[in-house]
Amino acid sequence: MVHQAQGLLVQEVAADGELPSRYVLKEQQGRPAAAAAAQRAAPSIPTVDVSRLADADPSEADKLRSALDSWGLFAVTGHGMTDPFLDAILGAARGFFHLPTEAKQEYSNVVDADDGGRKFQPEGYGVDRVDTDEQVLDWCDRLYLQVRPDDARQLRFWPTHPPDLAELLKEFSVEGEKVAKLVVTAMARCLGFEDGFFVDKVGDRMPSYARFTYYPPCPRPDLVHGLKPHTDNSVVTVLLLDDQVGGLQVLKDGSWVDVPVLGDGRHQLLVVVGDEMEIMSNAAFRAPVHRVMAPGEEAERVSLAVFYQPEPDKVLEPSPELIDGDRPAMYKKLQAKVFADGFWDAFALGERTIDFLKVKVDAVDPPAAAVSGA
Ligand SMILES: O=C(O)CCC(=O)C(=O)O
Ligand SMILES: [Fe+2]
């Protein structure tokens, strides 16, 4: 069974020029307009040259450490992907979202279920999962695909138009994986560990998922979320931003801070720390909460995020080397697959997976003795 709003594409809603109430945030839900007043003049986000990390340059490692401590994300340079290549992949993404609805529906994330009905599943094209009437919906459509390992691809969800989209995505995911591994390796070194410290825990067949998100023009961007506040379901995410239209904001020290577009045809590529790294590092590295504001009436926006995750059978837990008397384990142990699946339940509710699955140790139920004594 799918919720009746599951098949409602935001792009179609946007074409009507109305803003249905399903998308409108209640005042207490932190509307972007209210938050904008509290927003600070955007300090520029930190930049890390990953080619220098590869050379084990100590000053670059210091920059990485400081970026992770203060922001949990940073802009990457030295990744080897050219602006024309990044432009081509965003162009192909726009090309896909501009196809007629029927063409895109071939890749729909609402599929036939065994019971003869229809069901939502994460891969494919459509909106994020809708569970209830109360859920305030985000102003975006998305195409979500597993890209690695290669044999896990479900090619029936891979668009054949624009014709270059699939090849560009494969190349992006491979180049992005190099960036992700370099960063995860350097993160281990930052904490004084061997290069393979985190990479081994994640596994060789590190699954990765690509999310192309399309934010159509919005009549009232002050009343909606393009994408609600969340942390990523990843060890690290490699995120390519629209080169023309901003909207990404990061929660830093309690205020929302804009991540500006660079302009001049340059493309902003970010690395974002995800929940799984927060757990493995026992919060030495924290996943930043971020959200996206919807574009105005005259604009549209696309982004491409690739989430690099641990192999599903790996155990996700704070590394024992990062636990001691002063810093006890902050998270409970669970299977990577359980955590990854929990993400979708949590996301529909607008909660962090770590909170929804009660992974934080201080969220553990009180011991039986304390309960019976009450
Ligand atoms: O569209 C963006 O800039 C960010 C997207 C994002 O946060 C995500 O896909 O997880
Ligand atoms: Fe995200």
Automatic annotation (TrEMBL):
Record-linked InterPro entries: DIOX_N, IPNS-like_FE2OG_OXY, IPNS-like_sf, Oxoglu/Fe-dep_dioxygenase_dom, Plant_2OG-oxidoreductases
Domain of life of the native organism: Eukaryota
Gene Ontology MF terms: metal ion binding; oxidoreductase activity
Residue ranges of every copy of the Fe2OG dioxygenase domain listed in the record: 206-310
Cofactor(s) of this protein: Fe cation
Keyword Iron: yes
Gene3D superfamilies according to UniProt: B-lactam Antibiotic, Isopenicillin N Synthase, Chain (2.60.120.330)
Keywords of this entry: Iron, Metal-binding, Oxidoreductase
Family the UniProt entry places it in: Belongs to the iron/ascorbate-dependent oxidoreductase family.
Protein name: Fe2OG dioxygenase domain-containing protein
UniProt source species: Triticum aestivum
